[in-house]
Amino acid sequence: MIHSLDVTQVATDVSKQSCLFMNSYACIGRCLEDDKNGCTVEMAWCDTPTNLESFWPHECRSLSKERKQIIFWQFHRSMACHIYTAILAKVLKGLCDDGVPMSYEGRPVVDILVLDMAEFDVSDILATKGPDSCLRVRDPVSGRIFPILATHEVMEQQIELGELGCSRLGMKIPEMTPDICSSIKQIKQHRPLSFKGSVPHWWVAVVVEGVNRIGKKEWIMVHLDICGSAYDSAALVPSKETNKDSLVPLKVFCTPEYVMIPNSDPKLKHKLELKPLISERNQGTETLSIALQPKSNRYFRCYHKDDTSFIGVTPIATYVEHQVTESKIDDAVNYIISYIKNDTLPSIATIGSQVTVCNIQSKPELNGRKGRIHSALDGTKNSTGRIPVLIQGLKKPVQLKPTCLRFGSTPSQYQSKYELQRKHKELLEDDTLINHISQKQKNLANAALNKYDPAVMKVLSSITSGQMAFSKLADPEFKRGYERLLKPPLSTLLPAELIPRFQDALELSNHRKAGDAIKLINIMKSAKQRFLEHDPSLVHGDGSVAIGADSDMMHLTTSVVSKINVDLELRYVFERLDDLGLYVNPCKRFAV
After folding, report:
1. Quick one: how far is CA 117 from the chain centroid?
2. C-beta of residue 471 within 8 angstroms of C-beta of residue 518
3. pLDDT tens, 304-341?
4. Please, which residues have CB within 8 angstroms of residue 28's CB and are 6 or more apart in sequence?
5. CA separation for the pair 578, 559 (Å, rounded)
6. How many Cβ atoms sit within 10 Å of the Cβ of residue 247?
7. Residue range 422-441, pLDDT digits in tens
8. Peptide bond into 500 cis (omega under 30)
9. Is the link from the previous residue into 489 a cis peptide, with omega within 30 of 0?
10. Which of 6, 248, 292, 541 has the greatest CB tally within 10 Å of its CB?
């Protein structure tokens, strides 16, 4: 067993550590107004990455330390929100894939989603005057003043300024793909208020299981926004630093888990759409009502008005699959996962926790082996933070880094798009929803067929016909289909209990002795076929074969067993195949 990590603490660590990879060299050149009228500044550039101290010049004495910290984080998190969210999403998925359990207030995480809005309403912030208004930046050349919040209108103006003009504002020119340009044009033409007062925004939500007021099971969405400080001065939490005044951006709030339906836009087939529909008990009967959040919750404000904006939902596995990889994102993700595991696993792992060894470079033959945490961590953990693990096949425990361990007994903490569709399809088929969901939406929700490539179909055919064999992984095309099938959303086609075994088999197929093992398996298989063709009556009722002590088959088997026994790594492969139920280890049946 392993204790769980609180998902809000994980998000806090991500919010803080991601700053190491999202360096900004922009700082305040001079303050033009004090906090009585809001804060207007001109920007400058530093030779080194800026922090809270170097961001502000000494002249800005009228601003309090708290106000300076709020504006600092507002400036830094008002840009590249999609990158910060991608880092958080990938870290959460990476920890899940390593078997690290996460929870919120003791409730285990059962799903992870990336949420986004093309028209996130910030009009009230832009209209606010005084000390709570957003930071404004003045271009010293043109004299134009821009709010730090990059609304669609501001992005259009920044493009007009060009790269040099944006650099004077301490910003980068927006990346405008044809799709983004088309979207802004449509918003400007059809929704002018949204064009002036909304921004694109991303955040992450985890789903946990809860119980409602009548004792019925329900699911709760815990929203995690590490860029929330751009829109909310209260979206700052204490970091783990000893300095109690040190704050990092994070906004956390909870809502019910809303109904999710397929997106009607052909370009957004990988996404779902959030609908604020939940069931409530009214005078003893189940009815459906729209569960609106207060208007003060800007994340769900779009559902209070009749417009076309909505919250998009991308399941974490689908999001990572579609995410364009940037080196700085991958570097940040790998570093933060290592940081969290090294910092927390020694304190939450318990004696006897089952682990799988991974990422060992000095002894790669140990990768893929199972093991258990051996002894009390507080007493045996050395100064490097290593964990004692008793690995299968070894007599003494090995001290391993937390980053070299994957916990195997943790249930899946996220669902694929098709699992979500299946779950919410059952809600959509409920008669009580008929008055609230259009027929078009119901038809979309029921369209769940997908075409797979021949390699995947080949693997599925082998599994359903009972002909799945480890030796088939020697075929590159078969292995490619096997790898695709084990990844969401295709993995939903497999029984959940089979997936860990198939994943272990895939990992074992990468062992350097796997090819030799497959050759021996094929030799045994061919010999057995020839043997039975000669005398089919040798097959017993349970499928076993009667082999004479002096038969050619026995001589061949003895030779194979001898080869396996003299090679420790080859013997390990056959022992694992036997453990996984993929091939009977001949060394167990025939002693040499």
Report:
1. 19
2. yes
3. 655 557 888 999 988 888 776 677 788 889 899 988 88
4. 41, 42, 43, 44, 55, 56, 57, 60
5. 19
6. 22
7. 665 554 444 343 333 344 33
8. no
9. yes
10. 248
